[in-house]
Amino acid sequence: MPSYKTDSTGMAVSQTFKAEATEVRAHAEAQVYSLLNPYLTDQQKAVVEVWFQMPGLIFFYGFIAAYWLKPHLLTRPVFAAIYLSLAAGIAVTKRR
């Protein structure tokens, strides 16, 4: 199996890369989130993951809360949880 030089991210480094290809790769790493992104610290990655997971967690806890309050709700618990998670998702994505 051939061995290649790799950079700090583990991607193969070629001597034939043009400057434009390196710029395109840097732009892609800056625009698309990945846990393997070498430009983010571990704390920044943790913050991104919390924001990404928040609507799902709100759905889960909203469903549990709506289930316990079921006699007081006119709708099924899943609908309350869906509306809560949608509101959280909108709030998370609109915040910039």
pLDDT < 50 stretches: none
Mean pLDDT: 75
Largest sheet: none
Structural class: mainly alpha
Quickly count the domains: 2
Q: What is the CA-CA span between the terminal residues?
A: 46 Å
Based on DSSP secondary structure assignment, what is the total number of beta strands?
0
Helix content: 55-70%
The H/E string reads: HHH
Shape: elongated
Strand content range: under 5%
CA radius of gyration:
21 Å
Number of DSSP helical runs: 3
Write the layout of secondary structure elements.
Blueprint lengths: L18 H13 L10 H27 L8 H18 L2
Helix pairs in contact: 2-3
Structure description:
This protein is mainly α and 96 residues long. The chain has two domains: 1-39, no CATH class; 40-94. It contains three helices and no strands. The chain has helices spanning 19-31, 42-68, 77-94.
Could you list some keywords that capture this structure?
96 residues; mainly alpha; 3 helices
Task: Give a brief outline of the structure.
The protein is mostly helical and about 100 residues long. The protein contains three helices and no strands.
